[in-house]
Recover the amino acids of this structure.
């Protein structure tokens, strides 16, 4: 049995000073740094958008962040431009201890479909290779942390449990956007109902 920690999108643009800020998003970094040594593998996802990504409100005339459009047949909420490939905003939040990361997965690279999950795009047309990496390393247990709880963390956790991994979400190591009041609470309920176990970081002590 091997355990992997999935670091979801811990990037500058999701920090409080970023273009798509997650409130208190940087507060999870010390929590995460403190638990890195509890895992056999540490895998990070990075939102890695081309400049013309279809989820950016700037790609549409008269649209603003929060509006909803049809993107390649899928309902798509529009966001400010964020995590553009090779930009400062796409880099890891500097205080994150990246030396422990064994593998990085890039997602959201196709302009015509968004990718909240670390496993697939939102239409499940493209795989990122994450499941293959985890299974090739005999990983059975996946612990999900990062940004944001109500989007990329949620969909990554749901895909992990659907793929047969024992899936845990570390609640104090994630924060949400909460576009609508209650989104974060609802996300944790959805994850729990799907079979994810919601835990606190302190529950990991002495496990390994």
């Amino acid at each position: 049995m091997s355990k992997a920690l999935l670091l979801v999108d811990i990037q500058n643009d999701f920090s409080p000073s970023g273009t798509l800020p997650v409130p208190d998003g940087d507060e999870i970094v010390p929590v995460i740094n403190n638990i890195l040594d509890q895992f056999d593998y540490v895998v990070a996802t990075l939102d890695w958008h081309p400049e013309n990504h279809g989820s950016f409100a700037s790609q549409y005339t008269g649209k603003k962040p929060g509006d909803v459009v049809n993107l390649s047949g899928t309902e798509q909420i529009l966001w400010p431009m964020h995590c553009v490939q090779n930009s400062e905003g796409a880099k890891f939040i500097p205080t994150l201890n990246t030396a422990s990361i064994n593998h990085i997965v890039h997602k959201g690279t196709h302009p015509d479909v968004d990718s909240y999950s670390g496993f697939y795009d939102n239409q499940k047309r493209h795989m990122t290779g994450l499941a293959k990496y985890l299974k090739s390393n005999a990983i059975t247990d996946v612990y999900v942390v990062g940004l944001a709880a109500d989007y990329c963390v949620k969909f990554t956790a749901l895909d992990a449990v659907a793929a047969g991994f024992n899936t845990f979400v570390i609640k104090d190591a994630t924060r949400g956007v909460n576009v609508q009041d209650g989104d974060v609470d609802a996300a944790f309920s959805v994850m729990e109902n799907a079979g994810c176990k919601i835990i606190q970081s302190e529950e990991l002590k002495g496990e390994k």
